[in-house]
C-alpha cells in the first residue's frame, strides 16, 4: 500500500512543482502602486484635537497653506452641492516623514459612514509627495492597528503552542508557508496575466503538500488525507466550472471591476471566481480529511480485528457527525463575509428569488454549495482510502506509520500484542470478568478480597475448614 501511495502522490507532487515553475512570472515587470497611480505614502500620526463645525472654511478657520479658491469655485473645505454641511476638523501631529512633528488639520464631513475620532487616536494619512507642510498633500485614510493585531497574533500563536506543543509549532510553520505561497506566487502570477484557475490549482497543491506534511509528518495517514483532499478539490473545480457557466456568472463584481480598471488589461473574472472557490474550500477540506484519516487509524489501533468494511463503516459514522457541522461552518463563513451585501439587498424590496439569482448573491450561492458538495464527498473518499491502507498493514506498523504521538512520559501509550495477550487472561480471572469481555462478573467467581489492618491483640477470624487445613 505504501508503494501505491508513493506511485499516486509522486507524479502529482512533481506536476505541482513543474506547474509552479511554469506559471511563476519570472522576469515579468510587476505592476506597482506607483505605476497604477496609487503612489501615496502612508504617514502615521496622532490626533491632538477634534472640533465640530460648518464645512465652510472662512478666513479664520482655513487650513494652513490652503490655496485660494478659483472664481465660482467653493472655498477650501466648503462642501459641494449635496454634501454634508457639518464637518469635523481633526488636528493631527505627524509622527514620521519629512514633516514629522508638524500639526495639520483635516476636515471630515459628518455623515453616517464617518468614523468617530477622539484625542489620542493613532491614524494613518496618505501623503502624495507634493509639499510636506501643505495639509492638502495629506488625506486621512485609516487608523493604526499594528499593535492590537500583533497582540492578537501572539495570543493565537501561544494558544496553538500550549495545546499542540511541537505539533502546534509545525502548524504555525505550515501557516507561514501557506501565506507565503499566496503572497509570493498566487498574487503575482494572477497580476501578471496568468489564468487564475490554474494558478489557484497549483497554489493549492503546493499548500496542501507542504502544509500537511509539515504539520502531520510523512506518514501513510497524511498521504491518504492528501489523496482525499485532491479528489475533493478536483470535484469542486469541475462543479464550480460547470455551474458557473450554466448560471452565466461573469465574476465581474465591484471589486473585480475596480481591479481590471487599475490593471489596464483584461483578466479572467470567472476564473478568478473559481480560484476563490478552490482556495476558500481548501482549509475546510484539510480539516475534514485529516480528521477522517486519524479516526480510521485510531479505530484500527483500538480494534485490530476490524477489516476494511468495519473500518469504513465506523469511520463513516464519525464522518457523518463531522460533515454536518463542517458544512454549517462553511455556509456561515460565506454568509458572514457577505453580510453587508445581504443587508443592502434586503432593503431593495425585491423578492427572495430575485435576490438569490442576482449576480453578486448567485456567485456566493454557487461558491457555498460547490464547496459544500466537495466537503461532503471528502468524507467517504478519505474514509475509504484510509480504511484500505490501514487494514492492509500490521497493527504495530499501522500505528507507527499513522503518526501516533507519545504521551508526556515518552511512552507510546500502548502495550505490545504479546503483553496485552498475557495481561488479559490474568485480569479476567482476577476480577471474575466474563470470557466475552462484556464487563459482567461471573456468578461463580469469588468476591474480591480487600486487606484490612487489625489492631494489636486481635486475630483474623478463619472458617474451621481453613484452620484445619493450615494445621
Automatic annotation (TrEMBL):
- Please give the residue ranges the record annotates as the region Disordered: 52-82, 398-471
Q: Which UniProt keywords apply?
A: Membrane, Transmembrane, Transmembrane helix
Q: Where is the composition biased (Pro residues)?
A: 61-72
Tell me one Pfam family matched here: YibE_F
UniProt biased composition (Basic and acidic residues): 459-471
Please list every transmembrane segment annotated in the UniProt record, as residue ranges: 146-163, 170-191, 197-214, 226-247, 267-285, 326-348, 368-391
Bias category Low complexity: which stretches? 73-82, 422-433
Q: What is this protein called?
A: YibE/F family protein
Origin organism is Longimycelium tulufanense
Amino acid at each position: 500500500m505504501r508503494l501505491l501511495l508513493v506511485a499516486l502522490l509522486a507524479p502529482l507532487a512533481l506536476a505541482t512543482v513543474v506547474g509552479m515553475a511554469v506559471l511563476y512570472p519570472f522576469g515579468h515587470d510587476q505592476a506597482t502602486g506607483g505605476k497604477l497611480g496609487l503612489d501615496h505614502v502612508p504617514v502615521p500620526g496622532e490626533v491632538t484635537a477634534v472640533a465640530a463645525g460648518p464645512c465652510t472654511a472662512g478666513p479664520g478657520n482655513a487650513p494652513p497653506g490652503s490655496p485660494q479658491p478659483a472664481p465660482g469655485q467653493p472655498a477650501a473645505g466648503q462642501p459641494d452641492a449635496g454634501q454634508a454641511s457639518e464637518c469635523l476638523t481633526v488636528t493631527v501631529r505627524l509622527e514620521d516623514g519629512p514633516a514629522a512633528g508638524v500639526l495639520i488639520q483635516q476636515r471630515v464631513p459628518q455623515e453616517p459612514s464617518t468614523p468617530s475620532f477622539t484625542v489620542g487616536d493613532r491614524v494613518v494619512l496618505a501623503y502624495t509627495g507634493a509639499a510636506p507642510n501643505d495639509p492638502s498633500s495629506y488625506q486621512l485614510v485609516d487608523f493604526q492597528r499594528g499593535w492590537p493585531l500583533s497582540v492578537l497574533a501572539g495570543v493565537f500563536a501561544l494558544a496553538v503552542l500550549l495545546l499542540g506543543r511541537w505539533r502546534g509549532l509545525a502548524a504555525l510553520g505550515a501557516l507561514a508557508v501557506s501565506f507565503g505561497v499566496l503572497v509570493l506566487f498566487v498574487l503575482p502570477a494572477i497580476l501578471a496575466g496568468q489564468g487564475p484557475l490554474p494558478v489557484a490549482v497549483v497554489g493549492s497543491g503546493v499548500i496542501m503538500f507542504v502544509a500537511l506534511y509539515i504539520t502531520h509528518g510523512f506518514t501513510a495517514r497524511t498521504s491518504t488525507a492528501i489523496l482525499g483532499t485532491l479528489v475533493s478539490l478536483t470535484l469542486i473545480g469541475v462543479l464550480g466550472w460547470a455551474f458557473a457557466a450554466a448560471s452565466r456568472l461573469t465574476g465581474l463584481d465591484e471589486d473585480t471591476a475596480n481591479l481590471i480598471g487599475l490593471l489596464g488589461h483584461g483578466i479572467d473574472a470567472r476564473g478568478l471566481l473559481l480560484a476563490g472557490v478552490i482556495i476558500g474550500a481548501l482549509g475546510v477540506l484539510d480539516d475534514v480529511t485529516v480528521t477522517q484519516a486519524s479516526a480510521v487509524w485510531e479505530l484500527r489501533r483500538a480494534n485490530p480485528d476490524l477489516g476494511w468494511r468495519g473500518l469504513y463503516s465506523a469511520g463513516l459514522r464519525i464522518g457523518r457527525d463531522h460533515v454536518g457541522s463542517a458544512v454549517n461552518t462553511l455556509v456561515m463563513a460565506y454568509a458572514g463575509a457577505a453580510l453587508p451585501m445581504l443587508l443592502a439587498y434586503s432593503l431593495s424590496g425585491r423578492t427572495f428569488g430575485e435576490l438569490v439569482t442576482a449576480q453578486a448573491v448567485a456567485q456566493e450561492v454557487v461558491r457555498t454549495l460547490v464547496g459544500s458538495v466537495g466537503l461532503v464527498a471528502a468524507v467517504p473518499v478519505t474514509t475509504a482510502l484510509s480504511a484500505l491502507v490501514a487494514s492492509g498493514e500490521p497493527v504495530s506498523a499501522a500505528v507507527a506509520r499513522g503518526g501516533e504521538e507519545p504521551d508526556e512520559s515518552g511512552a507510546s501509550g500502548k502495550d505490545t500484542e504479546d503483553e496485552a495477550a498475557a495481561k488479559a487472561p490474568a485480569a479476567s480471572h482476577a476480577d471474575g470478568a466474563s470470557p466475552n469481555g462484556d464487563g459482567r462478573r461471573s456468578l461463580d467467581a469469588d468476591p474480591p478480597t480487600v486487606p484490612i489492618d487489625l489492631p494489636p491483640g486481635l486475630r483474623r477470624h478463619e472458617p474451621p475448614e481453613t484452620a484445619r487445613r493450615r494445621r
